[in-house]
Amino acid sequence: MTKTGGEILTEQLIAEGVKTIFGVPGIQLDYAVDGLAQNRESIDFVSARHEQGAAYMADGYARVADRPGVCMVVPGPGLLNAGAALSTAFATNSPVVCITGQIPSPTIGRGLGMLHEIQGQTDLLRSLTKWNAIARSPEEIAGLVREAFQQVSSGRPRPVGLEIPPDVLQAKTTAGVVHPAGGHTSEIDEESVNRAVELLAAAERPVIVAGGGVRDTASSAALQALAERLGAPVITSRNGKGAISDRHPLALSRLAGADVLENADVVLAVGTRFITMTGQPVIRPGRRRLIAINADRADVGAPREFDVAVIAEAKAALEAIANSLPEGKREAPSLDQYRKRESDALSAIAPQVQWLQAIRGALPDDGIFIEELTQVGYAARLAFPVYQAGTYVTPGYQGTLGYGFPTGLGAAVGAKGRQVVSINGDGGFGWALQELSTAAKYNIGLVTVVFRNDAFGNVQRIQTETFGRNIGVDLKNPDFVALAKEFGVAGERVTTPEGLGKAIRNARGTDAPVLIEVPFGDVPSPWKLLAEPSIG
Fold it and tell me: Contact, 382 vs 408, CB < 8 A?
């Protein structure tokens, strides 16, 4: 029995366990989309209003669903539109599979001006992914999809890309699916583990720094177990928030943990780039010893100076070290003084903290919080407590303004009933507000908070403080509540933190999308607090 390449693509995706694809249909994808149409009972196709939105949704889905997110876009401008989202997924170690079209196979690289042709599309895709390939025949599709999922699910999780020309999707083949083999095993160098154990066992003031590599529940449990054995405070980076519950007596934010880190004699950096915003190591060896656990060897090289580097996934390495330590637990230090110092410092940004407290009080412990590049979002990096792994979503070092709302939609699809709250500034929300249509069409139960000050507020502050003037920062906004209702999304406006908390609680348990507009005035800058220390 012969099938088209598009039909084989869909069947292989189903074999890989894919339940949802986010995309935008287009002529180069006709046979791929028809394959999805024939299997709509097994796989959902969420059609976004823009390729950027589709790729961000795949990223959000991947962050919370414990499986890769998949997006499908047309070539050329479609892939370019998806580029910001893929770069964000790359920066945040998010397992996204991007399937993109191509121009007809005989014309690739010839510069004939084919529809959606761009020179060097394969090179472009390579710059945004950890692995990429192009299918040259329908017989190659299943194997390349299998390889894509193997790559995205092993080592450091980052996006992968697969190009499939339209003639390959249309062509017939007798080839079938490639059934996935068993899961991969993580190999660890015993010598590096033993050296790490030796340093940690002798340490008097050990400290752990946890990053985005400790984002799943199993790795979080392994981290907590090792920290308790060592009596070691755990400082979480922005991407690592939730690696250990902020209720845990050993948990510290990067603000509260600054002095603790400075006074440590042994520092264990787990799943973190360990680089500041200025491109320098968070801390150098000097009188202290530094140990790294990282799945990517590139993240333990210069300018960092580690005494020991364990190249492995976080869970496996943490458990290996814990199992090799001498029996017994070291007494944990009291950290109350550092938390008091943090609390005093956060009083400088009290208005943002009050809004964050309202959101945290209304959002269940397992609820997902999507941070954005807005005044409340900046403050959240320090002032939003996180209680479970994988429940705090950021754009990482990419800092992609406008990512939050579409990423939140994907997270809400993958969250399996857990509440998801996306906070946005009115500037960033404008990047993807058309996806209100997607939220309504598919009844995606995301709570979207839009803080409105009618300006690119952070840019306005920087221009004014630096140059004494500003330009291009004022915004002409719609009535966001009325706009949401035009799309069929429930909307309301609140003016107090108490009102915001109530609105979020009222939205809990519903499957319908909700937009909450919050008029927002001038607030104190959080950047002095965010500057030191910055842990990547």
Answer: no
Q: Where are the alpha helices (DSSP H) in 171-216?
A: 190-202
Q: Which two tokens stand for residue 21?
A: 């694809």
H-type alpha helices, 66-137? 77-91, 121-127
Q: Do 158 and 93 contact (CB within 8 A), yes or no? A: yes
Of 128, 378, 91, 344, nearest to 211 (Cα)?
91
CA distance 34 to 6: 7
Helix axes 30-37, 5-15, angle to 10 degrees: 50
Whole-number CA gyration radius for the chain: 24
402, two tokens: 């406008």
- Tens of pLDDT, residue by residue over 209-232, are 999 999 899 999 999 999 999 999
Beta bridge partner(s), residue 452: 519
> For residues 464 and 473, is the Cβ–Cβ distance under 8 A?
no
Cα–Cα separations (whole angstroms), residue 354 to 102, 344, 351, 360, 409: 49, 14, 5, 10, 25
Per-residue pLDDT of 105-156, as tens digits, reads 999 999 999 999 999 999 999 999 999 999 999 999 999 999 999 999 998 9
Please state whether the peptide bond connecting residue 533 to the residue before it is cis, i.e. omega within 30 degrees of 0: yes
The pTM of the whole model exceeds 0.85: yes
Amino acid at the residue 463: Q
Encode pLDDT of 163-192 as tens digits. Answer: 999 999 999 999 999 998 766 666 799 999
> 352: burial class by Cβ within 10 Å (0-12, 13-18, 19+)?
buried
DSSP-derived 3-state class of residue 428: helix
HSE of 322, CA atoms in CB hemisphere, 13 A: 20
Q: What gap in Å lies between CA 386 and CA 536, rounded to an integer? A: 18
Beta-strand runs (E) in 300-445: 308-311, 368-370, 392-393, 420-425
| Calpha distance 190→176 (Å, rounded) | 41
Total number of residues shown for the chain: 536
Give bridge partners of residue 423 from the DSSP assignment: 449
Residues 6+ apart with CB under 8 A from 422: 370, 372, 404, 405, 407, 408, 411, 446, 447, 448, 449
CA distances in angstroms from 495 to 47, 191, 312, 423, 446, listed in the order given: 34, 58, 48, 15, 20
| 8 A C-beta contact, residue 196 and residue 292 | no
- The 10 Å Cβ neighbour count of residue 153 is 17
Kind of pairing between the strands at 3-4 and 172-173: antiparallel
